[in-house]
Amino acid sequence: MTAPAEGIVALPPARNRKRPFPQTDTSRGLALVSPTLVYALIFLVVPILLVLANSFWTQHYLTIDRTFTLDNYRTALTDPIYRDLLLRSLWVSLLVSFFTVTLAYPIAYFISFKGGRHKGLWLFLITIPFWTSYLLRVMSWKVILGYNGVLNSILMGLGITSEPSTALLYNTTAVVITLTHAWATFAVLPIFVSLEKIDRTLLEAATDLGDGPLRSFRRITLPLSMPGIVSAVMIVMIPTVGDYVTPQLVGGKDGVMIASAIQAQFGRAANWPLGAALSVTTMAIVTAMAALVVFSLRGIARRMR
């Protein structure tokens, strides 16, 4: 073996070079997710832990007693006002999820099976409402629901009233209608993705074996698209429970939801521990309800096959 030429430093064999970090699949994966993990810990986990800690304390005017207590949770679960608001919020979120998915599924089905080479254009068109702000869309629905043209024309023709009718405004129905429109696109996209993953040869085989369109849809398309339906329900149901803007603008007194009560405790009522307890209680109940809905939908899908 010849010695290296003068002035040239010989490098050790490549296998003997020490790397600063172990280059395994696990280490590379941890290195990739660590920034996101740190971000989630700082801006998601830490605030939730602070809210949880506050829920066990007591507010005394401008001071907080940090003695452990469950009185806030007792108030949140037994007070008729908060209990009714929470039940109304859960009921509204279920209604909005049902109507949104019911309206979104045919749209996603049409785009996936009938859209052809224009699928991208159809997906682009359904995002047009998001070109305007959420507040502007809610205010538009306030105008639409506040002036029921047909009903108003009938009442004015009979001479009963000369003012625009607000029969569809300031109630739970107005909240459900507005939220259904606001979250429709969020339900279309996951259902569309799920429908796109269905192997079309399965439908052809079902047709060859004598299944009609409705039977093949019930036995193949609907069960295989259930993951998209579950995702759509979760995307719609969880945020709508805590919606604050829509009930304030179109719900009125009859459409108030639990988010308004939580905001009041952190605002003018100045009872942060009670507001934290209401928040934690809502999160826990929504989590349990979401798990129940997921298992129920999966059970329905298994029975359809």
Automatic annotation (TrEMBL):
Q: Does the keyword Transmembrane apply?
A: yes
Main subcellular localization, coarse class? membrane
Q: Does the keyword Transmembrane apply?
A: yes
Q: Where is the ABC transmembrane type-1 domain?
A: 86-293
Q: How does it sit in the membrane?
A: Multi-pass membrane protein
Q: Where are the transmembrane segments?
A: 37-57, 90-108, 120-136, 143-162, 168-193, 224-242, 276-297
Tell me one Pfam family matched here.
Answer: BPD_transp_1
**Matching SUPFAM superfamilies, A to Z?**
MetI-like
Keyword annotations for this protein, in alphabetical order, are: Cell membrane, Membrane, Transmembrane, Transmembrane helix, Transport
Q: Localized where?
A: Cell membrane
Q: Which InterPro entries match?
A: MetI-like, MetI-like_sf
Similarity comment text for this entry? Belongs to the binding-protein-dependent transport system permease family. CysTW subfamily.
Protein name per its UniProtKB record: Spermidine/putrescine ABC transporter permease
Classification lineage: Bacteria, Pseudomonadati, Pseudomonadota, Alphaproteobacteria, Hyphomicrobiales
